[in-house]
Amino acid sequence: MHPVLESVDLRKGYPSPQGRVEVLRGVDLRVEQAEVVAVLGPSGSGKSTLLHLMAGLDGVDGGEVRWAGVRIDPAAPGLAARRAAHVGLVFQHHYLLSELDVIENVTLPGRIAGRRVDDEGRALLEAMGLADRARATIHALSGGERQRVAVARALVLGPSVVLADEPTGSLDRASAHAVYQVLRTAANARGAAVVIVTHDEALVADADRHVRLDEGRLAVTEPLGAAGA
Ligand SMILES: Nc1ncnc2c1ncn2[C@@H]1O[C@H](COP(=O)(O)OP(=O)(O)OP(=O)(O)O)[C@@H](O)[C@H]1O
Ligand SMILES: [Mg+2]
Question: What is the CATH architecture assignment of 33-59+76-224?
Fold first, then answer.
């Protein structure tokens, strides 16, 4: 069996006034079905870059990203549709649409895919304590509420891969736990491969394993608990 999601010798740099900065210098990461992996690393270490590349949102400089064992090409026609169908993305800046209310944002992937997902959307909102906010406008939400709406939107189609960039960054303990639980449920109940960029120690402890980006590479993978082998 191929891992659901894999990066092989992934390399990425950006131009800067001081010359080219090599952000990822050969990152190997395999994520299996039903696995929750936390990605740690200091600010600027390339965590969001790694997530964007794994989502096929940007081209690599070297190495490759594989979905279910097959190399993806961000420039290929059809990749956006595959991403929409299989990958749930929670961006660090969550990009909710202010013209739509909460439940419309959450169910938007369903409208694009031609599926009715109102029940799923409402269940996700309820699981994260937002049942009574479904008809709120986005600008009326707090930062933490917006973050949870973005998580609901990412999960509403039941993706096989979930990539979440600091999904609990502006949340209190209880709300962060609720977000973690819906991500964990995606892994346990549907076998999703879940990658979470986080600084949240409690979340790191609950993940199956965590990896640390440092100097452009992933430091030793640390299994945690019985599920982390
Ligand atoms: N589009 C871009 N153009 C130029 N430089 C970029 C671009 N995207 C990221 N970088 C640089 O690459 C480095 C890694 O950025 P990235 O956003 O991946 O870090 P991060 O680990 O997610 O940080 P944080 O924890 O603050 O979110 C940073 O130095 C950043 O300035
Ligand atoms: Mg980031």
Answer: 3-Layer(aba) Sandwich (3.40)
